[in-house]
Amino acid sequence: MQLIDYIVTSSLEVNNRCLRYLAECEPRLAPDNRVGTSLSDVSGESHMVYAESLLARESRRILSLWRLVSQGTKDVPLVQHLLSLEQAIATLSDASAIRRLTLRLAAIAPKDEEAQALLAVTRALPAEPELSWAGLSDLFSDDSAFWRSWPGLGLTSQSEISKRAQRSYRKAYKQNARLLAHLEEGSPASDWYVKSGDKFGFWVQQSAHQLELFRPGLSEKGKTQIWYTDKLADSLRMRASFERLILQLHGDTDGRDSTESTESTESTESANTENNRRKNRQNNGQSGDQGDQKLILPELTRGIALKFATKQLSKMDKRIGRLQKSTFKMKPKKYSGLVDRSLASLGIQQIATIKPVAAGSNESLATAARPDS
Q1: Are the beta carbons of 148 and 357 closer than 8 angstroms?
Q2: How far apart are CA 65 and CA 69, in angstroms?
Q3: For residue 55, is pLDDT > 80?
Q4: Residue 152: what pLDDT?
Q5: What average pLDDT does the segment 78-94 reach?
Q6: pLDDT tens for residues 196-240?
Q7: Phi, psi of 197 (to 5 degrees)
Q8: Residue 26: what pLDDT?
Q9: Pairwise CA distance, residues 165 & 167, whole Å
Q10: What do you get for the CA distance between the two ends of the chain, in Å?
Q11: What's the CA gap between 133 and 128, in Å, rounded?
Q12: Rounded to an integer, what distance in angstroms lies between the CA atom of residue 155 and that of residue 107?
């Protein structure tokens, strides 16, 4: 129960940051009350790109904590809430991922013709689904209410939560070993990523966010592990955006859905996450990823952008390779010891128990803290 209190407090801190950010930014960044981008306002677009990235990251952190405490739950209201949270994350993370990538590439392109080509790609990208500030605010408010009052929070033991955090790393470690074996056979990395890239990225991201929960009790080595894992997760997500961009520039259809649907998945969580992304795209009138639509561009512009994106993808693969070595230097058994030691160092048993707040109550939730802090 004490570890549950700590997780609740950590999640509410993230949740409150999102609510404050939405409250502060709505008048300044969203006059039409939408989360989206407008190429007619470069300054506003920069703000919106930042807003989407921040909200997507914090939402992923909240969801990763829910997965620690609610795995296997059949509580209908909570399941529906988590589905809404996953759909919001999918829109914030995926809908404008290619747009964010092309803007970033345009900013680092050394040649003017490359930058102009990438900006042209940005303008030619199809319309993307949007989320309202009010809708996101309601979502985070609902999430806060669930963390404060959901009765199932007291049903998961500390040892079970610790095992789930360790399991995330084992899954990521296993996927990494499979990727390395694939590359040793001389096969193209892209072939493996098409089949297992989402699964690999999912478990790496879970490991990063869940280990971040135990940061106060980690040694410097443990904190370094968080840094490498988090950077690898970001790089894998960006690599997926590169693949989608290149497919779109080629005018090919993204075949990941059909490929993955025939593959036996290792986890309900990663499979559900991808399914929810597909449902979210369908709900927003999309048949698939943005990669399903061919961009209307002059062939010269398309060729310049494609060449630059392909070159950057090669660099990204090298970066991922370096991060893999540092991230998975630690064996799963040693990682388990790292998590157990961090819990002991935190003095979880000294954290005050948080009493669930009844729905509609004005009672505030006290921040859990060690008595000697």
Answers
A1: yes
A2: 7
A3: yes
A4: 87
A5: 89
A6: 999 999 999 999 999 999 999 899 999 999 999 999 999 999 999
A7: -60, -45
A8: 59
A9: 5
A10: 20
A11: 16
A12: 50
Burial 339-364 (b: 16+ CB within 10 A, else e): beebbeebebeebeebeebeeeeeee
Task: Answer whether residue 370 shows pLDDT above 50.
Answer: no
Task: Kindly list the distances between the CA atom of residue 221 and the CA atoms of 172, 217, 335, in Å, as whole numbers in the listed order.
Answer: 19, 11, 11
The label of the residue with tokens 């259809």 reads 253
For CA atoms 330, 333, 336, 338, give the dihedral sign.
negative
Global pTM reads 0.78
d(CA 129, CA 319): 31
∠345-350-354 over CA atoms, to 5°? 125
Provide the token pair at 345.
């160092």
CB burial of 82-100 (b: ≥16 within 10 Å; e: otherwise) equals: bebbbbbbbbbbbbbbbbb
Residue 242 contacts by C-beta under 8 Å, 6 or more apart in sequence?
101, 309, 312, 313, 316
Q: Which of 51, 66, 44 is nearest to 20 (CA)?
A: 51
Query: What's the rounded Cα separation, in Å, for the pair 30 and 28?
Result: 6
Which helix (H) or strand (E) segment is 34 a member of? Answer: strand 34-35
CB 242 within 8 A of CB 203: no
- CA 294 – CA 120 distance, rounded (Å): 14
Residue 217, SS3 per DSSP: helix
Question: Can you give the C-alpha Rg of the chain in angstroms?
Answer: 21
In our burial notation (b when 16+ CB lie closer than 10 A, e otherwise), range 293-306 reads bbbebeeebbebbb
- Helix locations, the chain, DSSP H: 2-29, 42-69, 76-90, 97-108, 112-124, 133-149, 158-184, 189-213, 220-250, 256-261, 268-283, 299-327, 332-346
Measured distance CA(349)–CA(353) in Å, rounded: 9
